[in-house]
Amino acid sequence: MNPAFENKVALVTGAASGMGLATVRAFADAGAAVVLADFREDAVNAEAEKLRSSGKQALAVACDVSDDDQIAAMVDRTVSEFGRLDAAFNNAGVMAKVVPITESSRDEWDRVIGINLRGVWSCMKFQLRQMEKQGEGAIVNNASVGALTGNPGIAPYIASKHGVVGLTRTAALESIRKGIRVNAINPGLIDTQIARDVVSGDEDAYANFAESVPIGRAGKPEEIASAVLWLCSPGASYVVGHALTIDGGMTVG
Q1: Which of 37, 60, 68, 78 is the most buried if burial means most Cβ atoms within 10 Å?
Q2: What is the H or E stretch that residue 41 is in?
Q3: What are the Ketoreductase domain coordinates in residue numbering (predicted)?
Q4: Rounded Cα–Cα distance for residues 11 and 80 (Å)
Q5: pTM exceeds 0.90 for this model
Q6: In whole angstroms, what is the distance from residue 6 CA to residue 233 CA?
Q7: How far lies 135's CA from each of 120, 122, 139, 142, 205, in Å?
Q8: What was the pLDDT predicted at 207?
Q9: Is the separation of the CB atoms in 117 and 163 below 8 Å?
Q10: In the prediction, which pLDDT does 3 show?
Q11: Distance between CA 211 and CA 115 in Å, rounded?
Q12: Is 105 helix (H, G, I), strand (E, B) or coil?
């Protein structure tokens, strides 16, 4: 338990696996009531049931973050169930198909931007409205080290993550005088399915990629979760509009 999160309510998108699920578990272990949102309804229902069976407060919500109506309903259900919303981790995202810009399609751009960038905007829109009513709250958006560099072959993904950082900074400036802090994280190579998608599921290529990180390994989803909880805690009370890079040294050199 962490006194900072007792009687608090935390919402996580992309909560069925990876960084999202690790963060849900960390919030729940810290004492918060948690809302697990994902388009994979069966998966979040199962995870929420596990949490409830261990004595935690948990609600599963089916949500496709490319759909504004589903996002509005997600926040409404959160408040209806738990009365408030104190922390949100906007984590849902997809990898782009690996093709050069000359071969990329509008449909692919719309898919990636619709989830990775417009989805974050829409989530914040409804989250911020609730937090403004309360006069407090904290939001963390999941960007990427891809927000700091280019990467051949995944232009829509890179563009979306650059956009998340700019959106985060703007929301932070709009919200801080209302008692709400907005920040982002830039994960590097984290041991998740989306990381394997970068190398098209080639496990040898993934292992070599992980070995090339200065720390010598991929990050763990739990390491991302601990950073998200810190950014949502009173310990980060003077951190506003920051994009925290968590990459094992990938972008140091």
Answers
A1: 37
A2: helix 41-53
A3: 8-188
A4: 13
A5: yes
A6: 11
A7: 21, 20, 13, 23, 47
A8: 92
A9: yes
A10: 85
A11: 30
A12: coil
Out of 5, 39, 157, 206, pick the active-site residue: 157
CB of 251 closer than 8 Å to CB of 149: yes
Distances in Å between the Cα of 18 and the Cα atoms of 12, 25, 102, 128, 190 are 12, 11, 32, 25, 9
Amino acid at 204: D
Amino acid at 163: G
Strand 87-90 and strand 33-38: the pairing is unpaired
Concerning whether 238 is annotated as a catalytic residue, the answer is no
Write the DSSP symbol of residue 38.
Answer: E
Q: Which domains occur in the chain, in start order? A: 3-246 (3.40.50.720)
Q: What is the pLDDT of residue 135?
A: 98
- H-type alpha helices, 147-235: 155-175, 193-198, 203-212, 221-231
Tell me the C-alpha distance between 120 and 230, whole Å.
20
Cβ–Cβ under 8 Å, residues 246 and 227? yes
In the three-class reduction of DSSP (H, G, I as helix; E, B as strand; rest coil), residue 185 is classed as: strand
Distance CA 67, CA 122 (A): 8
Q: What's the token pair of residue 69?
A: 């109506």
**What is the rounded CA–CA span in Å between residue 133 and residue 238?**
21
Contact 161, 113 (CB under 8 A): no
HSE of 118, CA atoms in CB hemisphere, 13 A? 13
Check if the beta carbon of residue 227 is closer than 8 Å to that of residue 190.
Answer: no
Q: E strands within the chain? A: 9-13, 33-38, 58-62, 87-90, 137-142, 180-187, 243-246
Matching residue, tokens 């996002």? 71
Q: Which residues pair with 190 in a beta bridge?
A: 219
Q: Which residues of the chain are under the pLDDT cut of 50?
A: none
Structure tokens at 91: 């984590």
